[in-house]
Amino acid sequence: xxxxxxxxxxxxxxxxxxxxxxxxxxxxxxxxxxxxxxxxxxxxxxxxxxxxxxxxxxxxxxxxxxxxxxxxxxxxxxxxxxxxxxxxxxxxxxxxxxxxxxxxxxxxxxxxxxxxxxxxxxxxxxxxxxxxxxxxxxxxxxxxxxxxxxxxxxxxxxxxxxxxxxxxxxxxxxxxxxxxxxxxxxxxxxxxxxxxxxxxxxxxxxxxxxxxxxxxxxxxxxxxxxxxxxxxxxxxxxxxxxxxxxxxxxxxxxxxxxxxxxxxxxxxxxxxxxxxxxxxxxxxxxxxxxxxxxxxxxxxxxxxxxxxxxxxxxxxxxxxxxxxxxxxxxxxxxxxxxxxxxxxxxxxxxxxxxxxxxxxxxxxxxxxxxxxxxxxxxxxxxxxxxxxxxxx
Length: 392
Hints:
The strands form 2 sheets. Strands 1-2 form a two-stranded parallel ribbon. A two-stranded parallel ribbon has the order 3-4. Helix content is 66%, strand content 3%. 41% of the residues are buried. By secondary structure, the protein is mostly helical. It is flat and about 65 Å long. Helix 2 packs antiparallel against helix 4 (106-142) and helix 7 runs antiparallel to helix 9 (289-316).
């Protein structure tokens, strides 16, 4: 079997053209659904649709990883130097005959390439969103309308998302060419979550703008709580990605204990070796089971803190009527995370639960960012009732 070079740019133009064709569907749908409306309404609809499709991409990326399809095509950006597994049928068949369970099989090649097609489509939509954002800003300026570059409708947000998605594509390439290097795969997962957060900002800001609303004023302490929960969620997503990319989910198969103990034997020194190949340590030896246990248990312990923080935030949001919808969604996805997390442990890592666990984490980050984007801290202190009753 011949060795396939890791980077083969021959099919790059075909892939970009394919992504453009796929993106025409959502773009035409936005234009059709919003015909007769202004350009601002079309831009807002495109931002919301792109956010939704990016969330789908994150879910499919989790499916790709969890089905061990990340190396379904051993090169990048195509598959054996072609734009689809159909053209690479002979090479895939040869690889599958040599190793029937993979990493290269026809099924896994299709999963991997569909993921790349979807990523290219999202990239095209973000390009369109960026161009439209700057055109809208220019039209507002020429019409003499006030443009605020400090809010969520700032055209620099789509621009940052465009830069981000290019970096995300580079990490996608490294995921393949560095053979599922755990640190790279974890960063790729974080990058997808970060892209959702970036897209949530203009989507929410433009939705407020189209509704003729201003950001709601909430207590400064509640804004701090939102930022704190966002930081905890990013940390937990990082730890969860580290568990998944090191295949450490099944290091503990019981709850609330692990391996019949509240504090199982763990090797944190090995667990915290970040820059190393999959399943190996820096010195070339295999990672120990105790290290995998430490990776799993660290994520579990942090989950207790995150769940308590989210529960406290959910309770505090009852005082913010403007965030009632976000509060309901926060509660739903927090419960979903607990249930899917437990399912992964006690039901031997079922695929549906594992994919939903990734999606739930991404949704929680998006909801918190959405809440931050549509609110501002109320800097004015509430008047003292006693002072209000005193004569002037």
